[in-house]
Write a structure and sequence with these properties.
Structural class: mainly alpha
Distance between the termini: 38 Å
Radius of gyration: 13 Å
Number of helices: 3
Order of helices and strands: HHH
Largest sheet: none
């Protein structure tokens, strides 16, 4: 599934265990938020890869990190 691929794999850089942590993080996000952080509504793998490379993550409004103090 292209949704779980780490950016370094997409751009062809060397990778290590951090790529596994990236995929785990995507799984945790999916479990907590009910959707994928990158390309959730996309089907084309190249479009999904572009979203992953951009790296903009948005959290649902029920997370505390979105509330201002």
């Amino acid at each position: 599934m292209p949704y779980y691929i780490a950016p370094e794999l997409i751009i062809g850089e060397s990778y290590g265990v951090m790529a596994d942590y990236w995929s785990l993080g995507i799984c945790v996000y999916e479990l907590l938020c009910g959707g994928l952080p990158f390309g959730d509504s996309l089907q084309n793998p190249l479009d999904i890869y572009e979203e992953i490379i951009k790296g903009q993550v948005f959290f649902p409004s029920f997370f505390e990190c979105n509330k201002s103090k």
